[in-house]
């Protein structure tokens, strides 16, 4: 069948990698964003998901078979997260409903489903490894709101759905608010430039705990698989690389790639948000010396999100049994997830060689 995708959040780490994957597989792909970036073959759609009229006007003439919701807007409180991010999903689904062409809608959420929202992040008692049938946590969580809106719309309009719960997503994308791969590349580059050690900024607990991550490319494959495999319709799935690791094992390998000295955490975390307070000036100096294409460090690094992931005091391991039993058997080596991002950043002169 001819498959036409609409990716909401096409400039993000998930959406951009998904667009590249689907285009390579022969899909027609629309990429929705407020400020689309060019990608060969991608048909840009400009809209503000928080504005129902903007979304309706932008999508009214589109014939879309598959919707991929790969975006969210961070707010100051979870009450506002629920209101804003719930409305974004509602606006998308309402705008596509009149065409009656939608066959499947996929929603990307994450492990905050198990860990709780930022206001109470990591304070849950969810059992690890996280499994999809774990009960919801008490209280507000905009992921739950988005899911409920999706379920209700699917029932009303007769399309199938899937929910995808990645852990920390590692992949190539610029200007993304949740991008550990690029953030660590910038941090390591600054350490090499200043001669400072590459210090793990998180907690002793996270340094020693088992954890996992999600390569943006394996997430893209998972999204296509679930949206085109009828036997797995109307289900939620965890999606991670399939490899469990400890940061005390991976950190020295990342340091070696950049030629910097790895140092473990102190007795208390040293968050990058504070350590990198002078990063703007240093990065402009690095960019000038090496002819880099981006001299504004805040357009590359998301210190706060990496601090949240590396500083938490809770184990975070996701079970993949459900996807494996259903036929999704792809695996990604985590070290190579980071190396592939670092290599692309060098090739694009985002970081120096």
TrEMBL record:
Residues 64-352 form the PRISE-like Rossmann-fold domain. InterPro entries: NAD(P)-bd_dom_sf, PRISE-like_Rossmann-fold. Gene3D superfamilies: NAD(P)-binding Rossmann-like Domain (3.40.50.720). Pfam families: PRISE (PF22917). This is Nucleoside-diphosphate-sugar epimerase.
């Amino acid at each position: 069948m001819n498959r036409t995708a609409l990716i909401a959040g096409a400039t993000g780490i998930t959406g951009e990698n998904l667009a590249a994957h689907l285009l390579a597989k022969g899909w027609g792909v629309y990429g929705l964003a407020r400020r689309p970036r060019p990608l060969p073959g991608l048909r840009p759609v400009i809209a503000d998901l928080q504005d129902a009229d903007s979304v309706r006007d932008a999508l009214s003439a589109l014939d879309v078979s598959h919707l991929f919701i790969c975006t969210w807007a961070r707010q100051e409180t979870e009450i506002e997260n629920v209101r804003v991010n719930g409305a974004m999903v509602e606006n998308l689904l309402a705008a596509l409903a009149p065409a009656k062409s939608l066959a499947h809608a996929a929603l990307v959420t994450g492990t905050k489903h198990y860990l709780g929202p930022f206001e109470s992040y990591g304070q849950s008692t969810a059992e690890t490894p996280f499994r999809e049938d774990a009960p919801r946590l008490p209280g507000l969580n905009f992921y739950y709101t988005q899911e409920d809106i999706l379920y209700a719309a699917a029932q009303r309009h007769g399309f199938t759905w899937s929910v995808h719960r990645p852990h920390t997503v590692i992949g190539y994308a610029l200007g993304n608010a949740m991008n550990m791969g690029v953030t660590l590349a910038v941090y390591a580059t600054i350490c090499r430039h200043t001669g400072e050690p590459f210090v793990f900024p998180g907690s002793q607990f996270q340094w020693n705990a088992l954890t996992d991550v999600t390569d943006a490319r394996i997430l893209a494959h998972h999204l296509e698989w679930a949206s085109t495999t009828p036997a797995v319709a109307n289900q939620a799935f965890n999606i991670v690389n399939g490899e469990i690791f400890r940061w005390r094992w991976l950190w020295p390998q990342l340091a070696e790639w950049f030629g910097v000295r790895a140092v473990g955490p102190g007795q208390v975390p040293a968050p990058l948000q504070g350590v990198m307070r002078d990063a703007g000036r240093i990065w402009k100096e690095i960019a000038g010396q090496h002819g880099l294409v981006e001299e504004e460090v805040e357009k590359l690094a998301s210190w706060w999100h990496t601090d949240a992931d590396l500083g938490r005091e809770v184990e975070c391991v996701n079970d993949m049994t459900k996807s494996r039993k259903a036929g999704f058997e792809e695996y990604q080596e985590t070290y190579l997830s980071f190396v592939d991002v670092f290599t692309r950043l060098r090739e694009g002169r985002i970081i120096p060689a």
